[in-house]
Amino acid sequence: MIDPIALFLLLLSASTPILFAALGELVVERAGVLNLGVEGMMIVGALSGFATAYYSGNAFLGFAVAALAGALVALPFAILTQFLMSNQVASGLALTLFGLGLAALFGKPVEGVKAPSMAAGPLGLNWIVWLGLAMVPAIWWFLNRSRTGLILRGVGENHDAAHALGYDVRRVRIAAIAFGGAMAGIGGAFISVATVLQWTEGMTAGAGWIALAIVVFSNWTAVGVLAGAWLFGGVTVLQLRLQAAGVRVPVQLLSMAPYLATIIVLVAISARQKFSRRAGGAAPGSLGQDFHALR
Amino acid sequence: MTDAAVFQARGIGKSYPGVRANDDVSFTVAPGEIHALLGENGAGKSTLVKMIYGLVRPDEGDMVLNGQPHQPADPRAARAAGVAMVFQHFSLFDALTVAENIALGMENPPPRRELSARIAQVSQDFGLPLNPARRVVTLSAGERQRVEIIRCLLQNPRLLIMDEPTSVLTPQEAELLFATLRKLAGHGTAILYISHKLEEIRTHCDRATILRHGRVVDSCDPREHSARTLAAMMVGGEMRPIDRSGRQAGEVLLQVKGLSLPAPTAEGTALKSVALTLRAGEILGIGGVAGNGQDELLAALSGETRSAPGSILLEGADMSRLGPEARRTAGLLAAPEDRLGHAAVPDFSLTDNTLLTAGARKQLVRKGLIDRSAARAFAEAVIRAFDVRTPGPGTAAKALSGGNLQKFVIGREVMQAPRVLVVNQPTWGVDAGAAAAVRQSLLDLAGQGAGVIVISQDLDEILELSDRFCALNEGRLSAPVPTDGLTLDQIGLMLGGAHGMEVAHL
Question: Is B410 inside any structural domain?
């Protein structure tokens, strides 16, 4: 039998990388920017966090450096899209490819070594898991209750109107992109430093793409992101348990399950949301559009 | 009231590459005055107010507000100095609530509950009912404008700028807006009012400064002049009167019955058993506030949307299942509202744009190949006949000014000698001279025996052009009434009244 409480604790861990990445992307998209480079920022975070933790022996320092590295690697994307008016989709894809290649190149020296152990928090869960859970209400509060969050939503909803009212659209967006990078970096580092305890090339395995899907799935809300991350994490944990229990289903099919479940839910929700803009909360009005101040 | 000016501009000048937007502009606005800025499109009105609101910096000259030099670095500085502005295209955030929209327009908004209370207070004082918790996307155009106005009022502005505020309102809503402005002026606020609707300026404004080609050409009391003299000052010459003669209704050309279509998008409007009859030589005007099914009706008539068999008949032939190209060949042509992107491809040359609708009817395409010289000749003919100011048919559509492109897209259809022409907002955002040319061409087309449907939000235009009038309200078309003797008030009631607005009683 599978203990439901143990399973839930495992689920919390399994969903943490995606929760961080998706919360970051949520803020980016609410500011009106579509950054498809989440996977790239995650893998850069995974490597820089792991290497820092390995050489310094301090896992928490690893997470701090991963956040910094994620934000730094997102900066070229910010410059390309906000100052040079590059296409956001193409620039985001380039950021993913750039991050994957960069991490593969600099990851060679730390292949095959083991990460230092971390002190566990309450319930035997990693402190970073708790941090991720705390980020959900924090980001909800920031977006819906704070003045800065209101400006950020305004910029994402109608950048021309925000500009006309005197807000600096570019500055808001660059800050959001950097924040998204930092969150993706922490998410990536959680995989290498806290879960696998090793560095392997391409170890984020599409988690960044799932995070992007979950932002849509969430209807651009923090609570929705948590639900999406738990769905993905839950199916992941469940299929691992089923594999361990020796269920007579091909392993490949089981490994596919979390991705498949995400896609199915996403399609179902999108079909329903198509007509729900009046109800509110759907995609930000200026999402993915270039902003050019016409003077 | 004192004689000291609230706002004064002295010798303001602003140049853009190739354009002198403002040149030596000086004027003064007194407290409690509703001051009109009058001018054609491109006369420099918008640039001027953007400088007052801090969106653009003047190249030369200086401004004085309340006796202090006024040089706002950005709109926040302008707001802090006491300037508020209601934009022509609403600067609202659809997905946010009324309260959030208002908070974004304020420097230091109070906490949410207090803000909601103040919104309720101001909306009561000025008779502009609004629920602060509603999302803007669910509001009508008139209600959206109330959000903008209340956003301005909460800051107790000394100078309120309004950029063509009545273009989206019914006549009743416009009357209420003026009642509000009057009350505000009574408290000593100066109002700078931009419009090219001459009648409303004549009835409501105390003073008018007239701009032409970026310069102040005249300043007068608009109540002492006729609309005709004001128009002459604006365009710098006499306007040619519209000639409505030489038309009589003939046989039935277009018959629409039981036309019902579901809303194409969440923000769209469903058409509900629309019926109309159009005769040869007749112009049918269809009025309504934006978003009541105008775009959907045009799409159904042009063939972009197909409808149930038998719902659209052109000279007895069923058009309802045919696409736009087949309908054009049969003689049913249309010109949509959005000239850049819908009526014309922005990056295509004018020649290529003529091919898009005139290809089949004018035989510009033979055996699947484009007849370039014929297409160019047709484009040149349109340019000549409609006085489109452009270097030539090779110019990209987006390089033309709004008025010139509008003359071109209307001319392109008119020159194909349609049996029935449907136009939506034919003179929207077009200056008075070009608008008169477009309107005359529609009258001439009807005079030659074609049927014309004019869908427009400009009621003066409908009264000027059409023989019969129908109102479009939430996708339903009213029965037609003859326009002879019809007043704006009666039309306003047909359009669904003032959407619950009321004048405040203070």
Answer: no
